[in-house]
Amino acid sequence: MIVVRPLLRLWSSFSAAGLLLGTVLFAMSLTPSLVPRPVALQVMVSGVALAAGYGVGFLGRWLWDFMELPHLPGRLGQFVKLVLAVASLGIAVLSLANAAAWQDSVGLLMNMAPVESSRPVTVGLLGFSLFLLIIAIARLFGFVARRFSRMLRRFVPRRVSIVMGSAGALIVFWLLIEGVAIRWTLNTFDLSFQQLDSLVEADQAPPSASERVGSKASLVDWQDLGRQGRRFVSGVVTRAELEAFFGDSVREPVRVYVGLNSAETIEARVELALAEMFRTGAFERQVLVVVTPTGTGWVDSGAIRSVEYLHRGDVASVAIQYSYLPSWLTLLTQPEYGAETARRLFEAVYRHWSAMDTATRPRLYLQGLSLGALNSGRSVDIWDIVGDPVHGALWSGPPFRSGTWQWVTRNRNPGSPAWLPAFRDGSVIRFTNQEATLGAPDEGWGPLRIVYLQYASDPITFFDPQSFFREPEWMRAPRGPDVSDSLRWVPMVTFLQLAADILGADSAPIGYGHTYATEHYIDGWRAVSQPSGWTDEDIVRLKLRIGDLQNASGP
């Protein structure tokens, strides 16, 4: 009896309607979204969905009691509660039995192996444990609110004390979460990624060639480049690699990178980058690419190697690191810092470039992936360059917050899907995905060419905050080739799924989600930068040489 009574009290405190609604949302959370979810993310989504549904049901019961509406009498009420509990259990078991097949409906589109048979059991147990933890925190909040209310009741009316007690508990919990949990987490991330950024990998040695950034002759110290900067500089396509593919008439590309620790301020880093561009002859190349990295300072190798091959190495690229945190953390902690760095760099490069002889200066392009695409787009004010515009841009995986991308997508031509818009006559802006939808390289383009490379399965691009209460347009037929037909919109649940997909976007196989393939950059750069002398057969040969899709794992 000592054990039974507390269990009965615990059972009686639960809302059966809330449990049923929560289980329905739990079942919906197991259905597919844009990318296959790792177990940890699935547990998070399912546990939160169960708790959210339960919370709505519990609130409904509270309103029922508040309005003093009648309840079912004793045993009948307990019987109905038991029936609802059994129904909840049945829904949970049935949905978990289908969970693996739902996830495989996404994985098979991406040539992934089926999920483990033990996954549903793991998700069910851990998801329910997370639900219990959330309920425990909610009850602790209620306990604190009631304590505050009782303390205040001797001074103010009862209903006022309830409101003030709830507000006091909210303040206490917010201070604990914001002042302790969030700050501790951010400080931990900051320290961890700072240490990772300074890590010099064993196979990376400073370049010996004086024309390389980070060499003894360079104005930028090798150590100060940061981990991603050293990768970018040392990953340049060599003359030997180009000669092995073309035979002759090649040049070794120039890559300029300035790390976050290379100078104290944005202005100093921009001046350093410009000085290195002059020293290495970047403005003397046929093509000049201003690259905006992701939050960690990473530059997608496939995006740069492809343009270097297409133009036989006669390419210079320049980038400046503005953070060492992941893009999503950078957006939370330094939302404008990346855009400011990108804008200052572009202004400096454009100022010198626009003063050069138009007959001999390089063709100027912009490039960025993810947060880099967002900040690269923010770096240019079209009204400042309309008299002497750049030649184009290739932006991949543009985040859903990208202003120009949002406007163009909203104003796309009727009949074109949101995941692959057609915009006006296609002379300025075009969209492409895995299926190379850009048309002939010289067909219908104007002098300024902008290409958005995006996959329909990329949650960084297609997350929609309004999916909480409205079906996103990209879910309507026809769907993208890499989006499961089993995906269904469910209020609140789809929002949670897409939010979790953002965290797992980079874990998708190459050519899906937020993992962009070199092959698709090759098609994009061919359309944007107009390399001469390339046939379709040559492009296929290049993709076989430097592409990465043929190395993707099969089912």
Structure, described:
By secondary structure, the chain is an alpha/beta fold. It has a domain at 231-455 and 516-549: Rossmann fold, CATH 3.40.50. It is 52% helix and 7% strand. It has 19 helices and seven strands. It has helices spanning 4-13, 16-29, 39-66, 74-107, 119-153, 158-198, 226-234, 239-246, 266-280, 301-310, 327-333, 337-354, 371-378, 382-385, 403-410, 459-462, 493-504, 518-529, 536-546; strands at residues 254-258, 287-292, 315-320, 363-369, 392-396, 429-432, 449-453. A seven-stranded parallel β-sheet has the order 1-3-2-4-5-7-6, sandwiched between helices. β2 (287-292), α10 (301-310) and β3 form a beta-alpha-beta unit. The longest helix is centred in the first third of the chain and has 41 residues, at 158-198. The chain starts with a helix and ends in a 9-residue tail after the last helix.
In short:
The chain is α/β, with parallel strands linked by helices and 555 residues long. It has 19 helices and 7 strands. Helices cover 52% and strands 7% of the residues.
